[in-house]
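Raw record, unedited: Cytochrome P450
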Amino acid sequence: LDSWRRRRGLPYPPGPRGLPVIGCLFSVPKTYSWIKYDQWAKKYGGIISFSVCGQIVVVISDLEVAEELLGRRSAIYSDRLKIPFYEMMDWSWFLLGMPFGERWRRGRKTAVRTLQPSQMPRYHDLLKSKVHKFLKVVRANPAGFHESIGFMQGAIIMGAVYGYDLQGPDDYYLKIAQDANLISRAIVLPGGQVLNDVPFLRYLPKFVPGVGFNYVRLGNRLGQEMVRSPFEMVKAQMDAGTAQQSITRDCLEQLEHSDDDHDAKALADVVGSLYIAGADTTIISMASIIMALASNPDIQQRAQEEVDILTRRARLPEFADRPNLPYINAMCKEVLRWRVVAPLSFPHAVIEDDVYNGFFIPKGATVIPNIRAILNDPVRFPDPERFNPERFLSSDGHTFVDDPVLSAAFGFGRRMCPGQYLAEATLFIFTAALVSTFDVGKEKDAHGREMPLECIYGGEILSHPAPFKCSLVPRDGIADELISATSWGE
Ligand code: HEM
């Protein structure tokens, strides 16, 4: 009755009714749930709602609605769901999951400030060195490209955040972060998406004894270790005068005159959050670039020609070349659309009752933007399954035309990804360096016949590609020399 009064007779957004009490609990699959949401969007429209055990879930598959609610009304759409496993693990340090409020606001400020476009030149040398090292590593072991991407990105983020040079794939800090990431995905068993879609499961540990208990303990320990140990390392290095430039060092220097331990701890939480959010995402787009090149030889050739004209094959591409490489820029945009990294973003929660277009959206509702649907809308992006960088070129084919819609790949409103510019810079230098030195293609069998390329993308909160096979060989002697000549990444 109370809810009826609050609603003033207004209906919730349309959607499937589900069963009494549990609602749509069993209608939402645990993985690839966006496929179900697409079907519902076709039937009910760009904003739908359903209930799961009394909790209202709103799914937005329409760009204008997402921009209105999550963008323009972001003051009331920027909370996060309480994820009890995170709470039990005491992952309250994790910016991505933090509730809207003063602690989040402060942490977010630090993240945005250190990763804004004007800061990017500070990271250019780091990005180049790690990408060039990747070229060398892949030349030596092409079959291991998938792991090499993971290591490269770990090294980029560890370098940017802590000024630390990862020692190798078994580096202690990399391992903790990878394990913590696995836990944070596994914790939402049995498929990462589950807790976000089915808030009811948050009560699971209470009535299924033992479930998650070990995960919780382990997750807690890994989280604490990941946030604390690299941070303490930078502090010790600063005392010894040996700390490399990094986000952590810069921020600590600014804190120097504050004796407040609280500030230092809050800072450790933010930089730890950047590390975990940054290490697991960009790798998906880099693997997808390799996938796109392997299956589209014509696109690869065009990209190579564009870079070759500029560099004359006398050097590797630089960040200064970025404005003059429209096709490469278009590829980097297209890959974010073609294989959406976080298909359902990360759910938002509503802070106050709201009304949209005559529909009632209650305080506490979960709001899931279906980014995948928005970026694969066949009206806006004809033949959406095709990797087609030309979507982002002017009609004469020479100028890159940025489409603001693509920023949806990084979410909406005040919660939008603060790592966007670093991710885009990484993708640019990675793609440009790769096409200028390697031919990527399908694997050949013993008879020299091309084998079909298969790649399965996961159906969880981050859609990771399963490792796939393809051929990566230096283009020719010139490419080989260019790779050998770089002193970066030794
Ligand atoms: C291709 C790469 C990436 C993609 C597609 C991506 C995507 C996203 C998305 C969809 C969100 C949720 C936004 C929302 O709630 O509306 C997010 C949040 C976040 N991302 Fe990224 N991200 C990427 C790379 C990075 C990197 C490199 C970093 C750090 C250096 C980073 C740090 C974060 C943080 C800290 C948040 C939480 C923001 C908050 O809740 O206030 N991301 N990202």
